[in-house]
Amino acid sequence: MSITPFWVSAFLDLAPGDLDRGLAFWRDVTGYAVSAPRGETDEFVSLLPPDGDDYLRVQHLEDGPGRIHLDLHVEHPAVAAEAAIELGGHVLVRHEEGYVVVRSPGGLICCFVTHPATRRPAPATWPGGHRSQVDQLCLDVPRAAYNGEVAFWQGLTGWELTDLEETELERLQPPADQPLRWLVQRLDDADGPVRAHLDLATDDRDAEVARHLALGATQVARRDGWTVLTDPVGTPYCITRRMP
Fold it and tell me: Is the dihedral of CA 239, 53, 194, 236 positive or negative?
């Protein structure tokens, strides 16, 4: 029985008091509509692209700092959860609605869900003609946790792992119809929890960075291939020069 995810969604988990600013920013960055709220306390919404299926979602946390967690869409969440345990993960919640919440060996939260999705959205085109799209997830892994964390995600997804030119980066290769590419970054930090951030692809990085700054982002650093920013509530992310 396959545990390989047929779709992956990224959840922006916003700290108490950050929902309005954080949600408005990512709505405007993506150009996506906001779904009706759902959940026991209306804590969940999805960002709905004009074409294709949704893969970006927002949760308003009751406590704690903001973060990103993942939804892995699978046929059988309970079976995937058992595989995660064998790979070193820890089950946190087996919900009566059928989804399972798991923590990776390094501390990243993911949920196994069954929500159907198959159609990857197209990039957005902005005034002036340039295009962009949130199209990549990067796992930020401290050195001490790196080997175990990479083995966990590779075993859970079944995806091939390849090296990149940057010595601190490797790539997990999901199928082409998945909405998010996957990077794994080895941090200089010796230890600490595994984190994740989102990356955007664009065919005009300067124009895209300027658009984000106008929406309230803060530029942190500019590298040869990417620009590091934070959103108005402090969530780090990158704009890359990859073609969307």
Answer: positive
Under 8 Å between Cβ of 93 and 77: no
* Residues linked to residue 133 through DSSP beta bridges, in sequence order: 201
Please tell me the distance from the alpha carbon of residue 242 to that of residue 213, in angstroms, as a whole number: 19
- Look up the pTM and report it: 0.95
Alpha carbons 172 and 75: distance in angstroms, whole number: 21
Given 89, 113, 137, which residue is the final one in a domain?
113
- pLDDT tens profile 36-76: 999 989 999 999 999 999 999 999 999 999 999 999 999 99
- Judge if 139 and 187 occupy the same domain: yes
- Residue 190: pLDDT band (50, 70, 90) is confident
Q: How far is CA 179 from CA 38, 71, 161, 168, 203, in A?
A: 23, 12, 18, 23, 18
133, with CB counted inside 10 A (0-12, 13-18, 19+), is buried
Burial of 84 (0-12, 13-18, 19+ CB in 10 A): buried
**What total number of domains does the chain contain?**
2
Contact between residue 109 and residue 66 where contact means Cβ atoms under 8 Å apart? no
Are residue 100 and residue 61 in the same domain, yes or no? yes
- pLDDT higher than threshold 90 for residue 90: yes
